[in-house]
Amino acid sequence: MRLEANPTVQKHWTTHIGQAAGHPAAFLVVIVYATLWLVFSPVTFEWNAVATLAVFVMTLFIQRANRRDNLALHAKLDELLRVDDDARSELTQLDEQEPEVIERHRDEEVRKSGG
After folding, report:
1. In this model, does residue 1 exceed pLDDT 50?
2. Which residue from 17, 27, 85, 101 could staple onto 97, CB 3.0 to 4.6 Å apart?
3. Contact 28, 114 (CB under 8 A)
4. What CA–CA distance (Å, rounded) separates 108 from 114?
5. How far apart are CA 101 and CA 81, in angstroms?
């Protein structure tokens, strides 16, 4: 499988949502949601509401930390691929592909190596 560096790769909508959840603006969405909840239904804003919002915020924290770690790991791996003369340069673009494409690439590499 040949991976081509294509800056116009169309990403799946789930990829966009995952990236948005790791963005700081996602926290603003939770604040707006909580404010609207308080304004339009203050009677239902009880401990359940606080727990729901806490789950949303913690999910965003986890997603953001996970995204940061993945980006740092990719930067380090890209650097290793750049300095290794035997490395294939198209692998530095692998993280821009959809998960299904990456999985197919890994499966093909395992088949090539006989594993």
Report:
1. no
2. 101
3. no
4. 10
5. 20
Query: Cβ distance 70 to 21 under 8 Å?
Result: no
Please state the rounded mean pLDDT for residues 78-106: 80
Predicted pLDDT at 78: 81
Mean pLDDT on 97-112: 83
Could you give the CA distance from residue 37 to residue 53 in angstroms, rounded to a whole number? 11
In this structure, is the dihedral angle defined by the CA atoms of residues 33, 39, 41 and 45, taken in order, positive or negative?
A: positive
Please return the burial class of 101, using the count of CB atoms within 10 Å of its CB with bins 0-12, 13-18 and 19+.
middle
Name the pTM for this structure. Answer: 0.64
